[in-house]
Design a protein that fits this description.
The protein is built from 3 helices and no strands. By secondary structure, it is an all-alpha fold.
């Protein structure tokens, strides 16, 4: 007697959904988020320079000279 959901049809789709959800969950955890203590974005040299200038670690003249050295006019 044949059933609509015999073993082969059921496991084929069932297996697909398991694989689908595992990929989705792995993708969510592998995506870098901006959460404290987690992966951080790489800072660019210009970004570091701007932060140093904002903190007062370098003068305006030093900032301009370093910016010119980086080629960011």
């Amino acid at each position: 007697m044949w059933h609509i959901y015999d073993e082969h049809q059921f496991w084929g789709m069932h297996l697909f959904w398991w694989i689908f959800w595992i990929i989705i969950i792995l993708w969510i955890f592998a995506t870098p988020w901006d959460i404290p203590g987690q992966r951080t974005k790489r800072e660019t040299p210009l970004g570091i320079l701007k932060k140093r200038f904002a903190k007062g670690e370098i003068t305006k003249e030093e900032y301009k000279e370093m910016k010119k050295t980086l080629g960011k006019d």
